[in-house]
Specification:
This protein is α/β, with parallel strands linked by helices and 195 residues long. The protein has one domain: Rossmann fold, CATH 3.40.50. The protein is built from 8 helices and 7 strands; from the N terminus they run E-H-E-H-E-H-H-E-H-E-H-E-H-H-E. Strands 2-3-1-4-6 form a 5-stranded parallel beta sheet, sandwiched between helices. A two-stranded parallel sheet has the order 5-7.
Amino acid sequence: MKVLIIASPRSGSTNLYSYIKLSLGLVGYNEPHRTGNQQERMIKYKSIRSNFKTAVVVKHLFMQIENIGFDNVEYFYDNIENFYDKVILLHREDKQAASESYAAAIKSGLWVNKYTYNDKVVPLKEKELAYKMFIKEAEFIKTLNYPVFTYEEIYYSDEGKDRLDKLLGITDSKYRYKLDTKNRYRHNNLNKTII
């Protein structure tokens, strides 16, 4: 099986990716186009495509799709079904919390580490820009015809986990701990300011 996750940042996508990879025994590529110049990213893209003979899970953030190097981003979305058996779209309903988390990660440079959020050290401008990005991504998700999951239903609802497992044919709950809220990066919301 070939699985594609396209997610908003700060939506729990890294733990979701890990859960799918382990549960299905897939080769994984986590944000392969996050770094490098355009030529390097296209080489990575072609390398991943050449491995599609094996079972894979690939995770992209929406904003990284443009980084692959296609002249036309719509080409990527129009041709997903040629390369993947299952596509999962992931975002977060709570755009404010996502914006705060994203802005905090930009400020600290800590993307996959546990942290304590402090509103006093996170620039309001960064949160506002992130909030606008998340709203735009949520609108874009509505135009795509793939299963949509939210952070809230995956991490706070057995029903969401069950729906995901059914979609992917996961029958063993051995790795469900990956989707436990104990694994979230953010802890202790301090001095919260509403945007």
